[in-house]
């Protein structure tokens, strides 16, 4: 397909713990098209940020295998010089925590200017400054002429996040990875930031990978959704299908555990997923990885080597256990 | 007698400057806030960061000094010096936002949970051990956790250790400041369910501070909305969510992401309409300093900060 922007094939990212390597991203394949928002959902520890960092090659000491084809060029094979060209220009990332991602010793203007200058060293000071002001305007920062000389600590959380976005979009990237871009923000600011990302998508035809655990944000933003658990993709579908006909037990459990703000009936109890996400070293590497968290489901319904099954065009579900899955409280009703 | 009554609470932080570092101005973090909480209920306090919601909670429990106003807990003024020595402060406890920084990493769970007991109760080591074990059981942690350190637990478990510490002295009021903001959705559900369970079991009253309206709606009986240190609206949960009156509340409610992707277009339209109204009518709802007007009665249960008309 022509408009395929990013294609990941059998990606493994492993971290070394003592003498062994453990895969935090385990055989993940997915693709992002232009003008598409792909949301990646999962609890902390599911490997979604590790995946994002792999795409940007930001891991320091991880072992990365597989293919990450960005416009048909494998990111894993890129030289450092080539990487510096591509990163921040063709693909960019909005990081989770603006306070740690921004340099506290540089003004906002210097940091945004740096992103521009590194990819076009012929820019004059004057042009650079105009572009920076323009970017600050684009992300909706009031009084940009004043903010440009401020330091990150002088800005509020929402403003800092906008500065991060301004840096990320400085060179009109074709692929934008947003790692929990609104987690630390208030709802009204969140709505504004999401609008901004949506605008970018339309204006620049960019592909966006949105990493979040907020299902409301997913419902509002995404075109397609990939659900990750323990380093694997367990379900992938377009956004309507995923919210209306979720199949994998993990997806269904996640959807059930959110208090529904639009639903007027007040459900007393939220669904709780039993147990915790296993740590990297303790991950079960064989069988269905979600098995331990739904112990009331019979072992025999899981596959020995769970694979992604395409149950409808574009809707993939891992393992066959979804066919027999039910919540424990439903069992009582059935009897 | 009202369970908790906050009357015209003001918390101001001085801004110092000039040659002698004198007080030149003040930040009015909480600026004339009044509300009441009924026993056994959950009161949700909502607002964006910097709205003064946390400061209000901290002032009630005594972590911030009150500039003026009264906090009456079961009829006793908490700010009255004559009352300072009385023990009703132990009836008010707090659950903190971040379970990673609110537990001392160098202390064992036993010492963390037993600290309030050591301050107020005279217990032998053995009684204390039994008590802590009982508390941990109540929050769903096994007995062997007692000699572990905080880093050995997951986020949800840590937050439950924080809750065990908060309920150790059998308090009547718990101030929960963003208790689940730092947690994953699935763990959030666990902690919220659990908070509801112990509320029934121990007949607790909650002051639930959060910026997440979905969660506040799920938990609260009554809700107060703060903006720049003042109240803009107060009402029962249905009042706020089905019939918001103040433009600020409307905007807040409109900003909640809808979990149904099919409503996306509708939600966007709605949000734009509200934003337009907000931009247009801003002056009508806020005074010349951009602050909210005093609250006025809208219905029996519903108060809104609208300017006096006529």
Task: Offer a concise description of the structure.
The complex is a heterodimer of chains A (335) and B (310). Chain A has 335 residues and is an alpha/beta fold. Chain A has helices at residues 48-55, 80-86, 98-101, 108-117, 125-138, 144-147, 157-169, 187-204, 215-221, 239-244, 249-256, 328-334; strands at residues 4-17, 20-33, 37-41, 63-70, 73-74, 91-94, 175-179, 207-212, 224-229, 232-238, 308-312, 315-318.
Please name the defining characteristics of this protein.
heterodimer, A: 335 residues, alpha/beta, Rossmann fold, 2 domains, 8-stranded mixed beta sheet, 4-stranded antiparallel beta sheet, 12 helices, 12 strands, 32% helix, B: 310 residues, globular
Pattern of helices and strands of chain A: EEEHEEHEHHHHHEHEHEEHHEEH
Q: How confident overall, as mean pLDDT of chain B?
A: 88
- As for the CATH topology of the domain at 4-15 and 25-228 in chain B, it is Rossmann fold
Query: How are the strands of the largest sheet of chain B arranged?
Result: 6-7-8-3-9-10-12-11
Helix-strand category of chain B? alpha/beta
Specify the structural class of chain A.
alpha/beta
Instruction: Indicate the radius of gyration of chain A in whole angstroms.
Output: 21 Å
CATH superfamily of the domain at 4-15 and 25-228 in chain B: P-loop containing nucleotide triphosphate hydrolases
Give the count of helical stretches of chain B: 9
Q: Mind explaining what this structure looks like?
A:
- The complex is a heterodimer of chains A (335) and B (310).
- Chain A has 335 residues and is α/β, with parallel strands linked by helices.
- In chain A, 32% of the residues lie in helices and 24% in strands.
- In chain A, the strands form two sheets. An eight-stranded mixed beta sheet of chain A has the order 6-7-8-3-9-10-12-11, sandwiched between helices.
- The longest helix of chain A has 18 residues, at 187-204.
- The relative contact order of chain A is 0.13.
- In chain B, helix 2 (109-120) packs across helix 3 and helix 2 packs parallel to helix 4 (155-167).
- Helix content of chain B is 35%, strand content 24%.
- In chain B, strand 4 (68-73) and strand 5 form a beta hairpin.
- Chain B has 310 residues and is α/β, with parallel strands linked by helices.
- Chain A binds chain B through residues 43-44, 156-157, 186-191, 194, 213-217, 219-220, 222, 239-240, 243, 253-255, 257-262, 264, 266, 268-273, 276, and chain B through 48-50, 154-156, 184-190, 192-193, 196, 211-215, 217-218, 241-242, 251-252, 254-264, 267, 271.
């Amino acid at each position: 397909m022509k408009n395929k922007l990013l294609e990941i094939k059998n990606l493994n990212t492993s971290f070394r713990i003592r003498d062994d390597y453990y895969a935090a991203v385990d055989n993940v394949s997915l693709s992002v098209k232009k003008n598409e928002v792909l949301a990646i959902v999962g609890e902390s520890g599911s490997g979604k940020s590790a995946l994002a960092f792999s795409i940007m090659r930001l891991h320091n000491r991880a072992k990365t295998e597989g293919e990450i084809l960005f416009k048909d060029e494998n990111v894993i094979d890129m030289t450092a010089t080539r990487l510096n060209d591509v990163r921040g220009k063709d693909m960019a990332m909005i990081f989770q925590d603006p306070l740690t991602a921004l340099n506290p010793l540089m003004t906002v203007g210097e940091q945004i200017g740096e992103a521009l200058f590194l990819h076009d060293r012929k820019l004059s000071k004057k042009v650079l400054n105009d572009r920076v002001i323009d970017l600050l305007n684009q992300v909706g920062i009031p009084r940009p002429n004043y903010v440009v000389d401020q330091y990150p600590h002088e800005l509020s959380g929402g403003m800092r996040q906008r500065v991060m976005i301004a840096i990320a979009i400085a060179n009109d990237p074709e692929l934008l990875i947003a790692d929990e871009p609104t987690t630390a923000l208030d709802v009204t600011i969140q709505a504004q930031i999401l609008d901004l990302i949506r605008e970018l998508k339309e204006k620049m035809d960019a592909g966006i990978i949105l990493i979040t655990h907020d299902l409301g944000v997913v419902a509002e933003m995404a075109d397609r959704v990939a659900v990750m658990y323990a380093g694997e993709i367990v379900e992938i579908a377009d956004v309507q299908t995923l919210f209306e006909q979720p199949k994998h037990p993990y997806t269904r459990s996640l959807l059930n555990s959110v208090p529904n703000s639009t639903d007027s009936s007040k459900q007393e109890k939220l669904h709780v997923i039993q147990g915790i996400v296993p740590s990297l070293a303790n991950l079960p590497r064989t069988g269905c990885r979600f098995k331990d968290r739904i112990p009331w489901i019979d072992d025999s319904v899981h596959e020995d080597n769970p694979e992604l099954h395409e149950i409808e065009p574009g809707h993939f579900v891992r393992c066959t256990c979804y066919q027999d899955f039910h919540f424990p409280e439903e069992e009582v009703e059935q009897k | 007698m009202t369970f908790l009554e906050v009357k015209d609470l003001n918390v101001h932080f001085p801004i110092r400057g000039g040659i002698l570092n004198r007080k030149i101005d003040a930040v009015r973090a909480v600026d004339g806030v009044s509300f009441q909480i009924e026993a056994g209920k959950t009161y949700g306090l909502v607002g964006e960061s910097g709205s003064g919601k946390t400061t209000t909670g901290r002032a009630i429990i005594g972590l911030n000094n009150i500039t003026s106003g009264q906090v009456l807990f079961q009829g006793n003024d908490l700010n009255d010096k004559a009352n300072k020595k009385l023990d009703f402060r132990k009836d008010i406890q707090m659950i903190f936002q971040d379970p990673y920084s609110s537990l001392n990493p160098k202390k064992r769970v036993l010492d963390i949970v037993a600290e309030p007991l050591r301050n107020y109760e005279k217990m032998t080591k053995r009684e204390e051990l039994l008590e802590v074990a009982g508390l941990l059981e109540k929050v769903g942690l096994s007995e062997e956790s007692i000699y572990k350190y905080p880093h050995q637990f997951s986020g949800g478990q840590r937050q439950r250790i924080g809750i065990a510490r908060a309920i150790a002295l059998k308090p009547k009021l718990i101030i929960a400041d963003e208790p689940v903001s730092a947690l994953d959705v699935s763990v959030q559900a666990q902690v919220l369910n659990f908070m509801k369970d112990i509320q029934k079991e121990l007949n607790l009253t909650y002051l639930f501070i959060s910026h997440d309206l979905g969660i506040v709606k799920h938990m609260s009986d009554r809700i107060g909305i703060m903006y720049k240190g003042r109240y803009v609206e107060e009402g029962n949960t249905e009042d706020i969510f089905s019939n918001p009156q103040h433009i600020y509340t409307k905007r807040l409610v409109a900003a909640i992401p809808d979990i149904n992707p099919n409503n996306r277009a509708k939600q966007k339209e709605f949000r734009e309409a509200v934003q337009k109204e907000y931009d247009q009518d801003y002056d009508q709802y806020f005074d010349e300093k951009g602050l909210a007007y005093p609250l006025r009665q809208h219905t029996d249960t519903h108060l809104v900060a609208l300017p006096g008309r006529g």
